[in-house]
Amino acid sequence: MTAREWFQRAKDENFAIGAFNVDNLDVMRAICEAGRKMKSPVMLEFSPGEVEYFGFENIADLVENTRKDFEIPILLNLDHSSKVDDCLAALRLRSGSGDPVFDNVHFDGSELSLEENIEATKRVVEAAKAKGTLVEGEIDRLPGSSEVHDEELDPEVVKKSYTDPVKAQRFIQESGVDIFAAVFGNVHGTFPNQPDLDFDLLSSIRKALPNTFLSMHGGSGIPAVQVKKAIGVGKIVKVNVNTELRAQYRDALDEALGAKVQEQASYKLAPDIVRAVAAVVEGKIEVFGSGGKI
User: Fold this and answer.
1) Residue 98 backbone zone (phi > 0: left; psi -120 to 50: alpha; other: beta)
2) What is the pTM of this model?
3) φ, ψ for residue 13 (rounded to 5)?
4) pLDDT for position 147
5) What whole-number distance in Å separates Cα of residue 196 and Cα of residue 163?
């Protein structure tokens, strides 16, 4: 199944596919092992910083080999790219069989004016259509960053980031994107006062964009009951998760180093770390409802 087919199935059957950021090989393995165990499709995604670390060509090779090794649906996404040229570079990548490597590219023009965002996004959409690749767009900047924050988040800042359904409708109509990153109380990172999701707003966004796939960024720290409700109310098909993986990885690494202080071979520390991160992914898959779909 293609990414479009998976997202359509998710929309029809009220589940979402987890899009998990990859910042090292242990995290990649953990995501894929969880997907295989739970019989779930997974999406691996790479932010601009992660792309800079790995390199586009290396990502292409790693993902192609990982797909062969795990034999589960592994989708690939370029996450929050603010540069059109980087999106175009991702679209040019091909697997050994000649197929596009990236299933989805996310152009983030949220710091541009709406008009500039539409024009830039259209360039990506036009290139992607020729490749059969989906394009995700957004018009609103999510507060926060992919970290565990100690300080509280200003509720007014959150509300100012909310998606305007009318603007979203114009953006979709004029840009032609396949997936829209909706903002309705979701934030990047975790906070002591994690905001509640605004389901009335989400319902309005869904009504304004009946034929568009919706994604939810900032999937860390949101209570499971709210995530499940968002998937039902908004027909969310993709939920991004990063912070919880990073936090679990760091905690598991610290624990492994403390338990094996004499160990010099870092790969011998990896199994416990992979299991710990995979447990987080399994929990997300359970909440998203994508388990058992393959």
Assistant:
1) left
2) 0.94
3) -105, 10
4) 64
5) 15
